[in-house]
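Task 17 of the worksheet. Students: predict the tertiary structure of the chain below and write it out as structure tokens. Keep your answer in the requested format; marks are given for formatting as well as content.
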Amino acid sequence: MQAAVFDLDGTLTRQDMFRAFLRAALRAHGPGRPWRVAGLPLLAARLAAGGAGRGEVKAALCAVVLGGRSRVTLERLAEDFSATALATQVKPAALAAIAAHRARGDVLLLASASLDLYVAPIARGLGFHGFVATRLAWTAEGRVDGRLDGPNLKGAAKLAAVHAWLVARGPGLPPPIIAYSDHESDAPLLEAARRAVAVDPTPALARLAAARGWPVERWQDEAAAPAGRAA
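Model answer:
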């Protein structure tokens, strides 16, 4: 038995789920702070550009779009959003890979920088044993307070969360890991894995995979749009 760790955005899904969820929230409820809508394109551009401060930009986007919304309302939206994502956004080859690991009795972990709000139902829908994701912070009254509860799970932060989840699952060392990702930000996780697989990789990850000798798999079907990545 081993642990199979899958990234979400661009690896399992055809598009970035964070941006898609924010669009769904805007369509459903409008912005949490209407007077700040003008700043959304700039914030989205900063998030897409990556680099330092990505967690702060993500929190700012959540504050603008989701700030003040109730947990009940957003969990209902997240369930609907996740059901649509499971039906339309998950690559068939990703489903086949998950099924193959499940048939071998492997532990399945979804590890994402996307928001726990919708990563949780997606993980359940795909039959994962657990997930780690960026957490939204809530006020005492159960409303989005515009901050993240902990780190944005990119890079080393994602690796630390994966390791903590595996250790918490049982005594002793965590099982050997096979990790799947499309993005170079997951280099720490891929480097730490017993086996790393670059899935529909970005150019930067493709170069790293070639240098490290990691296999590259093409899961994106021809009819799908480019995956994109911001989370």
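Marker's comment: Residues 71 and 142 are 6 Å apart (CA to CA). The first strand starts at residue 3 and ends at 6.
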